[in-house]
Amino acid sequence: MTxxxxxxxxxxxxxxxxxLLMAVFLxxxxxxxxxxxxxxxxxxxxxxxxxxxxxxxxxQLAVVAVLLPLAxxxxxxxxxxxxxxxxxxxxLAALASASATQLEWLAFFRAIQGVGAAGVMSxxxxxxxxxxxxxxxxxxxxMNALIVGLGYSLGPTVASLLLAVLPWPWLFGLQVPLGMVxxxxxxxxxxxxxxxxxDAPYDRVLALLAAVCFASLVFTLSAVAQQKGWxxxxxxxxxxxxxxxWLLLRQRGQAAPVLPVDLMRRPLFSLxxxxxxSAFTTQGLAFVALPFFFQQQLNRPFVETGVLxxxxxxxxxxxxxxxxxxxxxxxxxxxxxxGLGILSLGMAGLGMSGVDVSFxxxxxxxxxxxxxxxxxxxxxxxxxxxxxxAHRTSGASGMVALARLIGQASGAALVxxxxxxxxxxGAGHAVMLGALTAGLGAALxxxxxxxx
Length: 452
Hints:
With 452 residues, the protein is an all-alpha fold. It folds into two domains: 9-203, Up-down Bundle (Growth Hormone, Chain: A), CATH 1.20.1250.20; 260-452, Up-down Bundle (Growth Hormone, Chain: A). The chain contains 17 helices and no strands. It has helices spanning 13-44, 49-52, 54-77, 79-99, 103-131, 137-165, 169-173, 175-189, 204-225, 230-250, 261-264, 267-297, 302-327, 332-351, 359-386, 393-422, 426-447. The protein is globular and about 60 Å long. 54% of the residues are buried.
């Protein structure tokens, strides 16, 4: 904790951590639950699959659009206030989503819920840094990665079990009581933290420019993936570049800029962010391409595919606390480099598999991917947060989440590009491309050994 940060009440750090991790778990669980429930939601609301996808797209666009503006707000107000605001919005929108009877209203409420989730994502690591002492920060990052992994991996199972006995609105309605418990615990136990040294008012125009810039970026990637046509792609790209350029000009000289260029000038911070982007691009490639690869190219049944995908998620969750502890002892550059090197080998092994490969060999390759990704994640989170000054921890936390989301979106777009270029064999090429992006991440991670 920093000198400017009031200590967590004696004997209460675990309650503060519990409130934080409950919100993080709900956010990650919500995303995977919604993905799994799309067919049921579309059928109930009499919508086409293409229309139903907006239940997910609206949430994703909202998260990416407001992530950095909320992180900058956290550096001014303090991350605790932004976190509490995020939980309140998330809970209210979950309740509204459960009561929606039309797809348009459900997509709107999901966008509001995405804003709430962004409030949590943008500052959760900043709050962890104020709960854990510096020498144990890696363990806190590892615990955060573990909970995120559990949320994503349990989501499909939770959704399937609930939909077997209850209608789809319960998927959102049951989030509310858990969210309320998290809100009450956070209100009572989360510490107040240091804020940026600036008397300037919060720049709403900057926040709007950042929202337009990053929403346009995600829309551009989606338009490329869905072959919307060059006019749509170029229009979205122009909007992103124009708003991004205006954003950079307007925020010059600010103590807590919305787009944290002050942090990106720090070599260790920027290399860690680009390492994260490469790793999550690999994850995006893998999670979209591998189901097609297993089922269509290797002729594996649906159940076997589900088990193989679960191996990756489970091993990542198990590795997270181990890697967090290691990161308190060894350089993140080495741990991340070794981890992403292992991930690259696992992806290459999968990409070179033929139809006669055994289930055990594929499971081993998936486990290698999980070990590698898990070994990278917690040390990298620790490196990013430790390289930021105390008053900019919210900005650093926001960049962590943004690198993850943009990386995953880029990976999905690259899979679509591979299918467009190579047809049905595109999944295999996308997996091999994932081996290359993981290798790039390993090189970027090792470059941090010379960074200051």
